[in-house]
Structure to design on (616 residues):
């Protein structure tokens, strides 16, 4: 009898060893933010993805004294490798947006204290003085003019997401999702065949204003709500307009860019936030397909570009009637 | 030896407790916009309950025919021996429809439409 | 194992199988998988308390295997086997602490153990832990079914006990 029982137990164990769901995820802290990675299939890519991100961080950080960017800023080395690659991508976006994204705005970001958290409002003459050092077009031949410094932070996370997706594809991963501190990239579709649903944060509350359904696309939001401080009743946020030297005040509360190129989306979300709705919409129209955008104005209106018409839905305190669609054929 | 009366009390307690939990589980109204179909514990399909449709699921052990109608979902045909999944009727409450011979499970989506990730 | 004992076990297995097959023909009481009276266990319980664990185990194993073949549902064997093993183990324990007039108690706990085994097997095989929500319902039915078969076994032992031994 014992043998019969043992046989049943063995059978039961054997049958219960069926393949388990293959979702793997990991969380890491890099580039001053929390990153979450999730893949279906090969678990080992998570570790190599984390390694890749840390590697990029050590090259691209403006504050890490051992980074390539730090060395470049302090005139101890020229720029090469990924940092050079990221810089040239950022320069492309600067040209595309008329300098609304500008990697040389870094001295101003330092002056406002956004890198250290020791926030202060610089006086007018200080800002005017620093503004003279700013200007991506002065960055010719890859040498920095006197007093100028660069920061690749506005595209670093987007670039990292592109590189991680590249790695995933190489390793045969067909379905995965990452959030590099709110820089989302969705590879493929969910295992059930559905598109990934990515929420868009409401700049006026802790909740979401809506969500987009995407596949093989980055979703990146920039907004003044992400980092700011108050002084004498005035709120100052972290996105500095390279033209004025002050926090961008374009009437937008947040900009979300959706598209397959994570670096482009990351850079454009910042640039469009600086440019304001009208100029950003014009840029989108002239660019042609390649990305879509969601704009939220300070008046809580939502503008989406026509490519998102079917994949974007509002939620929370927003209503469909708050959403306006920007079309290429219109002015 | 434990008195018979003690056994009766223990058994009654278990019975009543289970009864309360069963009622909670089966009568708790639970509605979701999507249902999920699992085979061998693996999510193979997410079903939008707003779209009426009939489709078959080939589980590798047999085929189940699933009907989605007016926001509800059920198995209407199966080539398994016991056909319990068909007799289960519409999916209600927290108790999933289970076809043990085919290792198929249908349940309402656990996340109530929350996004997979948040940008910002 | 002598021939007399073998014959007794064989007859009891046949009786259990007969009950099992007849029960299969009854319409299902509920659409919930695993909810059934399990009347064939009258034989298992009675055998356990008269012939002893070895004979009861043999009868149970044969009935489970042949029963699933007769029902044409071999896939279900794993679930009933998981339940059967747990129920059997439970009866082994209760056998030591119960008096002759408390046989039905062992049956109730064995029935509940059977349900736990069934659910555990179903959770493992479908890799879906969420179906544990069926456990309370199965326990309700298990207590009722265990009571029914237990009392029936109690009377069987009382009336036929000496013939069985």
């Amino acid at each position: 009898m014992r043998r019969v029982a043992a046989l049943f137990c063995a059978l039961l164990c054997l049958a219960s060893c069926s393949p388990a769901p293959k979702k793997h995820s990991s969380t890491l802290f890099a580039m001053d933010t929390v990153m979450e990675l999730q893949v279906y299939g090969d678990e080992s890519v998570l570790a190599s993805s984390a390694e890749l991100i840390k590697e990029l961080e050590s090259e691209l950080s403006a504050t890490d004294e051992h980074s390539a960017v730090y060395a470049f800023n302090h005139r101890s080395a020229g720029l090469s490798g990924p940092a050079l690659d990221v810089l040239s991508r950022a320069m492309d976006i600067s040209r595309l947006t008329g300098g609304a994204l500008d990697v040389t705005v870094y001295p101003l970001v330092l002056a406002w204290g956004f890198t250290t958290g020791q926030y202060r409002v610089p006086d007018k003459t200080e800002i005017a003085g620093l503004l003279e050092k700013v200007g991506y077009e002065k960055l010719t031949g890859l040498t920095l003019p006197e007093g100028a410094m660069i920061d690749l932070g506005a595209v670093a996370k987007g670039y990292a997401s592109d590189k991680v997706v590249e790695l995933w594809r190489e390793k045969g991963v067909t379905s995965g999702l990452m959030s590099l501190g709110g820089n989302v990239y969705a590879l493929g579709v969910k295992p059930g065949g559905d598109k990934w649903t990515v929420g868009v944060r409401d700049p006026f509350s802790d909740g979401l204003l809506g969500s987009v359904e995407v596949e093989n696309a980055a979703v990146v939001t920039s907004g003044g709500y992400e980092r700011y401080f108050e002084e004498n009743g005035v709120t100052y946020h972290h996105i500095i307009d390279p033209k004025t030297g002050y926090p961008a005040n374009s009437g937008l509360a947040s900009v979300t860019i959706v598209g397959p190129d994570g670096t482009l989306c990351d850079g454009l979300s910042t640039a469009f936030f600086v440019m304001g709705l009208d100029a950003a919409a014009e840029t989108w129209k002239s660019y042609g397909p390649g990305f879509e955008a969601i704009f939220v104005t300070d008046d809580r209106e939502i503008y989406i570009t026509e490519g998102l018409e079917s994949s974007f839905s509002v939620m929370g305190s927003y209503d469909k009637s708050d959403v306006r669609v920007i079309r290429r054929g219109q002015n | 030896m434990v008195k018979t009366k003690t056994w009766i009390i223990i058994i009654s307690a278990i019975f009543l407790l289970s009864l309360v939990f069963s009622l909670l589980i089966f009568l708790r109204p639970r509605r979701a916009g999507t249902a999920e179909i699992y085979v061998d514990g693996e999510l193979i399909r997410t079903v939008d309950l707003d779209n009426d449709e009939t489709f078959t699921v080939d589980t590798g052990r047999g085929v189940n025919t699933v009907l989605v109608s007016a926001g509800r979902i059920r198995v209407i045909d199966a080539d398994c021996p016991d056909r319990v999944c068909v007799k289960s009727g519409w999916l209600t409450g927290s108790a999933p429809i289970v076809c043990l011979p085919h290792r198929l499970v249908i349940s309402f989506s656990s996340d109530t439409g929350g996004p997979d990730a948040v940008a910002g | 194992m002598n021939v007399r004992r073998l014959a007794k076990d064989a007859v009891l297995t046949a009786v259990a199988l007969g009950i099992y097959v007849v029960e299969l023909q009854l319409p299902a009481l509920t659409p919930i998988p695993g909810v059934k009276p399990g009347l064939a266990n009258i034989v298992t319980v009675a055998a356990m308390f008269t012939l002893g664990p070895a004979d009861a185990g043999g009868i149970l194993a044969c009935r489970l295997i042949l029963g699933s073949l007769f029902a044409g549902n071999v896939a279900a064997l794993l679930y009933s086997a998981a339940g059967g093993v747990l129920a059997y183990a439970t009866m082994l324990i209760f056998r030591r602490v119960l008096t002759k007039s408390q046989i039905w108690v062992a049956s109730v706990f064995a029935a509940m153990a059977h349900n736990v085994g069934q659910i555990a097997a179903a959770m493992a095989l479908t890799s879906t832990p969420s179906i544990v929500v069926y456990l309370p319902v199965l326990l309700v039915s298990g207590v009722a079914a265990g009571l029914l078969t237990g009392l029936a076994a109690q009377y069987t032992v009382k009336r036929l006990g000496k013939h069985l031994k």
